[in-house]
Design brief:
Elements: H1 4-7, H2 12-25, E1 31-44, E2 53-65, E3 71-82, H3 85-89, E4 97-110, E5 119-133, H4 146-170, H5 175-188, H6 199-212, H7 216-244, H8 250-256, H9 261-273
Antiparallel strand pairs: 1-2, 1-4, 2-3, 4-5
């Protein structure tokens, strides 16, 4: 059965022994192997500019073949490979028996059975070539080459950019853009340009303004801070005058301005001392 790989999964000790068998084969020569396709998967690809994920293929019950092409010994219970063009062209599907040439290589992996943060040495097969589908030897799938796939991806991105530009030409400016532009126009004392403004027009207007006023953002922040200080000063003066006149109490002022009672008393004391 295809799922036999999962039902008769090797123990950790047995798997270590099989990996040792891979080590004993050595990495000097390429050898012929036979196995069963279990399933497909995906893995993150951070280094390719063309795609974020790579397809993978899980192979189970991997046997070393002798000179006569017969199974010699079981070298590992499973191996992962990227699902390259060669795997795609033979249409390798779960349950199929396949053969390939490969070389043994060592690598380091996390020891998930003991200390996950500790890396242990293990062995694998790399650079599979001459892949054949023994279960379905006559199957051939026409798969585009890597270059053709990259060109297809480039064309797809080009069309996506064109569609994005089309959408932006009729896209209305966002509320955030409108609010920001209104604030800048008010600060610069110029007419408000936001009536019916599109997204691209808003970007162009902002780019023009900031090119003409490089320090505009810092100047606006400074002006806003000064305005806030002035508002606080006027509020504190109002609190002092109303309490001094006896029109309102400390508690009334705390409730009206949403302040804590000790804060109102501190404001009154500071103004009284001045």
């Amino acid at each position: 059965m295809v799922v036999q790989f999962y039902q008769d999964r090797a123990t950790f000790a047995e798997r270590n022994q099989m990996r040792t068998e891979l080590q004993q084969i050595g990495s000097n020569d390429r050898h012929r192997f036979e196995c069963r396709v279990i399933r497909f998967g995906i893995v993150s690809n951070r280094f390719s500019p063309y795609k974020d994920l790579d397809e993978t293929i899980l192979l189970g019950d991997v046997y070393l073949l002798d000179e006569n092409g017969k199974r010699d010994e079981l070298v590992t219970d499973h191996l992962w490979f990227k699902r390259t063009l060669q795997f795609q062209r033979i249409d390798a599907q779960p349950g199929d028996i396949i053969q390939f040439d490969a070389r043994v290589d060592d690598y380091y992996k996390r020891d998930q059975y003991a200390d996950y943060h500790n890396k242990v040495r293990d062995y694998r097969l790399v650079r599979p070539t001459k892949i054949k589908n023994i279960s379905r030897p006559d199957v051939k799938v026409d798969v585009p080459s890597i270059k053709e796939q990259q060109e297809e991806q480039k064309e797809k991105w080009k069309q996506e950019r064109i569609e994005k530009e089309k959408r932006e030409k009729v896209r209305v400016a966002s509320e955030a853009q409108i609010g920001y532009i209104k604030a800048i126009a008010k600060y610069l004392k110029v007419d408000d340009p936001t009536d019916g403004m599109l997204f691209t027009e808003a970007k162009a207007w902002l780019n023009t303004v900031f090119s003409e006023h490089p320090k505009l953002e810092s100047d606006m922040k400074r002006a806003k801070l000064e305005e806030k200080k002035e508002q606080t000063k006027q509020r504190n003066a109002q609190i002092y005058q109303e309490i001094k006149s006896g029109e309102k109490t400390f508690e009334d002022m705390a409730e009206e301005y949403d302040l804590k009672l000790p804060t109102v008393k501190r404001i009154y004391k500071e103004y009284k001392e001045d």
